[in-house]
Design brief:
It is globular and about 55 Å long. It has four helices and 18 strands. 16% of the residues lie in helices and 42% in strands. It has an 18-stranded mixed β-sheet that branches. The longest helix is centred in the first third of the chain and has 13 residues. It is α+β, with helices and mostly antiparallel strands.
Length: 279
């Protein structure tokens, strides 16, 4: 019997939503890798497994990367999951909560296509919480060398780890070359998401993203949140900012305590049935 998925993307960052009622057996890493593979499966940047029962929130969600690892949080993934809940009649315009491995978040679907808001939580720059080995206190503008080049980086967590590299210019080529080295650097024991950040003005930043467990990514909500919070911590941007990525623009509001509210669009791609033979 085939397995049904719904596919959506948030600014080109695409996920497959798998309702637990449509799946029997283990959702192990080998199956996840095959399903997400763009040649041998349906192809995606990950799987959203839910809704699941929760004692802490209205819904619980598991987020899997295409390499089979489980992600603590995903901003685009949460917006897509919110759109899916709206499309299936589980929510309408009210505020609802979703439990993730990285904590409980609040979501609101104002418009299912163009305006889905997620309260991403509070960003921390503390080395012990991220975590970052060999450092104490806030990890802000530390020096490191990758690929024979000196960089300054800041680290942050919004339920998942991030390394933000501030530069005068950013590119896909740089993200693809240096991103994998930073992701697996021993100073990040849980690996890390990587953002190459350029500040455009007080209300706009630009990032290129190397996502932990997924690779080069056109857009990311948690990466936007982390990069925006670092820019605000450095005093380079104001409370309301736009994050420009290859896939499009996400709007953020970051208060003085570094709580992040993210708003952006979600596009439905379609319904897919995966034949068991593909697994």
């Amino acid at each position: 019997m085939s397995v049904s998925f719904e596919k959506y993307h948030g600014l080109g960052n695409d996920y497959l939503v798998l309702d637990p009622t449509n799946w029997t057996g283990d959702l192990d890493s080998a199956r996840i890798e095959r399903i997400c593979h763009r040649n041998y499966g349906l192809g995606s940047d990950g799987i959203l497994f839910g809704p699941l029962a929760s004692e802490k929130a209205d819904f619980r969600l598991q987020i899997f990367n295409p390499d089979g690892s489980e992600a603590e949080k995903s901003g685009n993934g949460l917006r897509i999951f919110a759109r899916y809940l709206h499309d299936t009649g589980r929510v309408s315009g009210e505020v609802f909560t979703v439990e993730t491995l990285g904590g409980v978040v609040e979501c609101t679907v104002t418009d299912p296509r163009s305006s889905i808001t997620v309260e991403m939580g509070q960003v921390s720059f503390d080395a012990a919480r991220i975590p970052v080995k060999g450092l104490e206190g806030e990890v802000i503008q530390q020096e490191a060398e990758w690929q024979g080049r000196s960089f300054k980086y800041s680290a942050a967590t919004i339920g998942n780890p991030h390394c933000v590299v501030l530069l005068d210019s950013v590119s896909e080529e740089l993200a693809r070359q240096v991103g994998p080295l930073i992701e697996k650097d021993p100073r990040f024991p849980h690996r890390t998401n990587v953002q190459f950040l350029k500040v455009l003005d007080r209300n706009r930043i630009q990032i290129e993203i190397w996502e932990r467990g997924a690779g080069y990514t056109l857009a990311s909500g948690s990466s936007s949140s982390a990069a925006g919070a670092v820019a605000r911590r450095l005093g380079l941007v104001d409370e309301a900012i736009e994050v420009h990525m290859p896939g499009g623009v996400i709007e953020l509001n970051i208060d003085d305590a570094f709580n992040v509210r993210m708003t952006g669009p979600v596009t439905r791609v379609g319904h897919f049935d995966l034949d068991p033979e593909a697994l």
